[in-house]
Amino acid sequence: MNLEKVVFGFFVLLAATLNFGFFIGDIANPEVHSVYELVAALAVSLIATVLKFGDRTQIGAVHLATSLVADLQLVAACVVWVWAVEISAAGLEAGATASVVSLSGGALLANLVSVVLLVVETVTFHRG
Amino acid sequence: MSNPLLVFWAQLFSRPEPVSRVPEHAHIESSSQASSTIFLVMRRMRTPLITLIVIFAVSVLGLHAIPGVDPEGRPARISLFESFYFMSYTATTIGFGELPWPFTAKQRLWVTFSIYLSVVGWAYAIGSLLTLLQDRSFRQALALQQFARKVKRLRAPFLLVAGYGRAGELLAKDFDALGQQLVVIDKAVDRVDALELGTYHADIPGLVADAANPHHLSAAGLDHPFCAGVLALTNDDQANLAVTMTAALLRPDLPVVARTVSPTIAERMHAFGTPTVVNPFDRFGEHLRLALSAPASYRLLTWLEAGPGAELPERSLPPTTGRWVVCGYGSFGREITADLRAAGLEVTVIETVERDESQHGVIVGDASEPEMLTRADLPNAVGLVAGTDNDTTNLSMLATARRRNPSLFLAARQNRPTSASLFEAMQVDALLVPTEMVAHEVYAQLSTPLLWRFLQEMPARGDQWAADLIQRLRRNCGRELPALWKVKLNQQQAPALTGWLAAGQVALGELLRSPEDRERGLRAVPLLLFRDGRAVLTPGGETVLEPDDELLFAGQGTERRELESTMVVDSTATYVLFDQHIPSSWVWRKLSRRSQPASTGHDREG
User: Residue A33's pLDDT is what?
Assistant: First the structure.
């Protein structure tokens, strides 16, 4: 067992699960989407990105790319949330919530690709 | 008469072709070394960055979780966004104060804790990054990458120079004056700095690296399609051997010139392909022999080898009979003794160290001691060679010898460039500067192949011929050596002449006339005519030229441009060769051809 692989797999999966937890539920209902989950997803996603630094393989490069996409989407979601809560006069209404959640949905897709890559890597390793 | 635009056009579109196809096996992954270092840096930044993210996440969430009060005294927690804002400016030590309203004691407790945490986190991350940027291997990797990128972008034939010592510097100046692009690789940082400070027309990429490493040679463009040759000029024979070997194995098609002072290394170099090995000691001996037998040939040889702009060397007449004294019997002393003996001269050798092989005429002792020079019987000698590897010893020997016998012919070896002014003040008759000798040799061999051919065949033509040629060059071009240039009479370089060349109507003397006034001859001296593998030295004006002839000229740039316009522009060529005026524009030519159907008897388009 390789501790580095455990930590890596843990963060990649945790990023995906937190993201999924935030995303699930009625898209326009702010009640069912916890902002803490969004922040946690962003932090874990950032850590996962840094963990992917410095991998020279082809699959490592794709890993890094998917992570960067997830980060971008989550940062965008956070910015929209801050705008809605702090700046916009209307507050966190249905449209803004839908926008935040759909952005996190994009990040979820990228995170799922990451997980798929992780699984593929593991499977090919056992075959070889 | 001539149209400069047409000349320009013809030159612009004769783009350089890649020198040769690169063999498949020649490619080495040169960038792998550089990129691996950058990956290593990214890998090392993982821990500091993750630490920073964790510290931020914990302190932002903590500040948000701790209850506070708003100005009206109601319990109110600051939002996640405000908490992030506060932590950002606190962690980066900007510190705007407590926003949006004053904190409670609980909040302040948490903020105190997170300030220490985050400042340590930032310091750790920035410190790690700066350490990595200062890292020597990282900087080298960056320099290598930048250099490799520069070389990869070169789109003109270039020479790879391994070793930018004194010889490399002299050569770089000569080749840069000829417009030849170079790439330099040297082990010493100060030499590459000197390259960057040097005033060159072209931007010469330089790399601090060991040239003996094939990866570095590959980064310097050994596998580049435009690489035109490799020069191994380091002062380390082993490194030169390694460069020669690498070049011969990876790019057998490239010409290689290597410098060495050891005959055994030279032999080992010859085992790999056909490198040109330059041994300065050997060449100095040959030059001295030539100077003994044919002083004018020697003078011409040294002048042509010295590169463009060189002054005509002074006439030196070494004594051809009598006894010579050679001080220092190292590799240089041996070469020169052998050469002098081969020229039929008697030689006395003074050597510090007693060698196993006892030879006739060798005196053992310190050559700088006056007593030794007495034993060598200086007053009855005709020449002295101060050939030790120590400049001070050489100079003191020269001074003593001159006092004993003022009529001695003095030859000396200068080892360090800093001693140049001392040797100059000493006014020795023949001076060997090994690095300059190497530079001149390599220049003669690589600047144009025809010059080398000329120098090879020149001594056979005799001394009087050489003296006449020196006179002719001086009359036409002045005291300074003009540029030497090559012309090939083919469709690309001489489109205006091809028809007449095939008909055998172009005599060299007719071609060398000014396009402004054909009564005036061009002040260019034809040195060599090369045809079908045979060379004719100083072809006369009556020589009839043929297609694909190659000619080597000496003359100023203005003369060269005038000849080029004759070769490229139809109307100029007609005027210069046959004193006939034809219209230079297409419309007028068509019109005049209709009125005079056979005015020139020459139709190039047809």
Answer: 92
Residues in chain B closer than 8 A to A47 (CB atoms) = 50, 53-54
Closest CA to B528 of B540, B518, B513, B517: B540
Chain B neighbors of A87, CB-CB under 8 A: none
Instruction: Tell me the β-bridge partners of B349.
Output: B326, B362
Residues of A within 8 A of B80 (CB-CB) are 35-36, 39
Flag whether pLDDT at B372 surpasses 90: no
CB B453 within 8 A of CB B530: yes
Q: What is the mean pLDDT of chain B?
A: 81
pTM confidence score: 0.67
Q: How far apart are the C-alpha atoms of A9 and A17, rounded to whole Å? A: 12
Percentage above 90 pLDDT, chain B: 6
Q: What would the pLDDT profile of B107-166 be if each residue is shown by its tens digit?
A: 888 998 898 888 889 889 999 989 988 888 888 888 888 888 889 888 888 999 998 888
Show the domains of chain B with their CATH numbers: 44-134 (1.10.287.70), 152-278 (3.40.50.720), 319-428 (3.40.50.720), 482-595 (3.30.70.1450)
Q: Evaluate whether B215 touches B30 at the Cβ level (below 8 Å).
A: yes
Q: To which residue do tokens 């100023």 refer?
A: B556
ipTM score of complex: 0.77
* CB within 8 Å: A39 and B54: no
CB-based contact, B52 to chain A, within 8 Å: no
Give the strand pairing for B68-69 and B75-76.
antiparallel
Q: Do A39 and B35 touch (CB under 8 A)?
A: no
Query: In sequence order, what are the beta bridge partners of B409?
Result: B383
